[in-house]
Structure formats: structure tokens, C-alpha cells
TrEMBL record:
<protein>
    <submittedName>
        <fullName>AfsA-related hotdog domain-containing protein</fullName>
    </submittedName>
</protein>
Amino acid sequence: MIPGRTIDTLDLAPSGGILRGSVRVDLQDPVFFDHPLDHVPGMLLVVAGLEFAEHAAMLRPANVCLRLTFTKFCELDAPIEVSAARETDGNPIEFIQSGRNIARGLLGRRETALAAEIAPVPAFGDGTIPSDLVHRADPGNIAVGPLTVDAGRVWVRVREEAAIGGLPPRASAVASIIEAARQFVIAILHLWGRQPMGTKMIFVGLTADVPTTVPQGQLTRALSWQPTPPEQTRKLRIDVHAVGDRAIKVGSIVIASRCADEVEYARLRAG
């Protein structure tokens, strides 16, 4: 066993060029199992992939692009293996449970520079967003502040103190901004996507093109979204900003989700 939040064992001596690790699922974890779940949440797999990647020296670039698609529900009662390969055009990552692929993706470096996008700093609200809007039972796990609508965009400040702890620094920086974006998306789906409370929001996939460090000094991180019609909210692009005296775009996160009521969710789980 190694020290870490979501990885139990690592084998970084490639066998056939493949690095392998086993994912830790702790049902008492206060963040990933903030409330009762009947499956392993996708965010736990995201964090496990990032923690595994940092131990394998795959998070060294200043900016990374992580693509991950969830193909099946991850069950609570069976081991999970994560594996990756070193290839010239990126590092393919795969999660296997009971012989089946449950998630796969690619981790690489950002190949092109972002176009300079600078905006005035919006008037961020104090405190946190209501917990029911982001499906968190413990207020300490809320990763974003209240919503602010400014110049046609919706903004939230990232609460760095709510970052997922116990991770190496680069994995922590990437994981905490993805978790903040995930919670932001849940709020958007309720408020703009018109999804009622009680709707199950299933993580289908993500693409995160983000820095591997947290801004230092007087800078903070924020997220913004350009509103779209309700029928276009199943795949949302969230922009990532470093905020000082201006808000400078430093990355983006695209999250695809599927919303289901209790009946549809039961049918998905049975299938």
C-alpha cells in the first residue's frame, strides 16, 4: 500500500509497456461518499487517474488535457484496476472492473497556447452556493461560491479550502478544479436546464484542459459559463480563470452528463 487518497498499490515497472495500479474505494471517505450511493462515483475515478498519473510522472507539464469517458457504472463490491501506457501522442488510461472496461481516456499536454481572453472581475458573492444545488450533504464539501451573473456570463469563485486533500500537488490542483466544475454543472442543470431536485445526474464524460498548479499570492480561481437553452445543457463548457485585478482565462472543462428520474435511473442500473 502507498500513501494516497485513491490509490492502494502501484506497479510502475512496465509490463508490456503498461503501468498499473489498484483503486482505493473507501466507503467512509467524507468527500466521495458525502451521501449514500449505490455505485462508485465518477469523480473518485477521475481523482484516482490523476493521482496515478502524478506518481507515474505524467502530470509534469504546466498544462494538461485529460479526456475521460465513463462506459459503465462502477460497482462498490469489486476491485478496480487503473492502467496507463506511455505513448508519443499522450497516455491512454483505462479503468477495468470484473474484466470490463468502465472508463477510458487520454492524458496529454496542452499542445497549443490559449487565445488571450481577459475580462473584468465580476462581483463574486460571499459564502457558498446552497448545498442542495450541488448535491452535497456536508457544507464543507461545497467547492464553489454563490452564482454571479455578469456581462452575460454566469460566474462562481472556486473555494480552494474545499479542495480534495491527500493528493500530490499537481493531481490536487487538477482534481479540485474539476470537482468545482462538476458542482457548477449540477447547479446549472437545475437552474438553467430545469431539472427538478431529486434528479440523478450521471457523469458521462469530461475533457479538462487546465493548468497543473493553483495560482499563488493574490490570485484565485473562478469558473464561468455562457448560458445556453435548456435543451443544450447536457454537455456544458466551463471556462477556468485566474483572477487578480482581471479575470484571465487559463483553461476549460467540458462535462457531459445524463439526467434521470428515479424510474429511468432504476432502469439504467438494472441494464
